[in-house]
Structures are given as C-alpha cells and as structure tokens.
Write a structure and sequence with these properties.
Strand content: 35-45%
Protein name: Methylmalonyl-CoA epimerase
CATH architecture: Roll
Family: Belongs to the methylmalonyl-CoA epimerase family.
Pfam families: Glyoxalase_4
CATH topology: 2,3-Dihydroxybiphenyl 1,2-Dioxygenase, domain 1
Number of strands: 8
Keywords: Isomerase, Metal-binding
Structural class: alpha+beta
Helix content: 10-25%
Number of helices: 3
InterPro entries: Glyas_Bleomycin-R_OHBP_Dase, MeMalonyl-CoA_epimerase, MMCE/EMCE_epimerase, VOC_core
Strand order of the largest sheet: 2-3-4-1-5-8-7-6
CATH superfamily: 2,3-Dihydroxybiphenyl 1,2-Dioxygenase, domain 1
Length: about 140
C-alpha cells in the first residue's frame, strides 16, 4: 500500500485569527471553507494550500466537539497527520493484519466526499493519523 502525506490538521481556537499567518506569511491560498456538524465531528474547517501541501485549520463548533476537547487537553497546534491511500478498505485491512488498531467510530465520508478513518494513537506511539481516500471523478 502506498501512503502519501495529504494534509496536516491544525487545531485552532478561531480560524479567522489563525488564517493571516497561513495566507500572508506562508503565502497560502484559501481553497475551501466549510462546517461539519456531523455527530463526533462538529468543526469549522478552512483548507489552505501552500505551494506543495494542504493545511486544514480546525475550529470547534461547540464545547463538546473532539477539537474542543483536544484544545482543552493539549492546546493549539497539530491535531493530526493525514495520509492519502488509493483504497481505504484495503489499507485498513493491511494495517489491521499488522496489529494496527483503529478508532472504528471515525470511519465516515466527510462533507467534501473524502472517506476517512483515524488510527488509534495507541498504535502510533501517540500521534493521531488519518487515512483518507478521495472519490474518483
């Protein structure tokens, strides 16, 4: 299975406060902005593309969202690394066969059609890793 770094998710308290750095200093371009109110997600997302990578700024929409809990426990900063795969089901099966554990309740399709799941940080020595697959179109 081929894994390619897709994006870095960064937890922020307010996207509007964080955006100027990514746009003005890193010369990023705001590619998309949306809100997901799906249960267990509850997040505002700003997708910023720099020359060669994508950064997703993640702002909680309520005090019980996963991003709000992350901010309370760890503060602002890198929330997760996301790796793109060609076949998410195959990647999950191969990883499970190697003993990797997943946060099964995170398997979903996001607001932009990307299928994703998070690996349990127990399997990664503490780093939250997302595996994602984009729709073919």
């Amino acid at each position: 299975m081929k894994y390619m770094l897709d994006h870095v998710g960064v937890a922020v308290r307010r996207i509007d406060d964080a955006l100027p750095f990514y746009l003005d200093v890193l010369n990023g371009v705001l590619e998309d902005r949306y809100t997901s109110e799906a249960t267990g997600v509850e997040v505002h997302v700003a997708v910023v593309k720099t020359e060669d990578k994508i950064i997703e700024l993640l702002e909680p929409t309520n005090k019980n969202s996963p991003i709000a809990r992350f901010l309370k426990q760890r503060g602002k900063g890198v929330h997760h690394l996301a790796y793109r795969v060609d076949d998410l089901d195959k990647a999950i099966l191969e990883a499970k066969n190697k003993g990797v554990r997943f946060l099964e309740d995170t398997l979903r399709v996001n607001a932009r059609g990307r299928r994703l799941i998070y690996i349990n940080p127990i399997s990664t020595d503490g780093t939250l890793i997302e595996l994602c697959e984009y729709p073919t179109s």
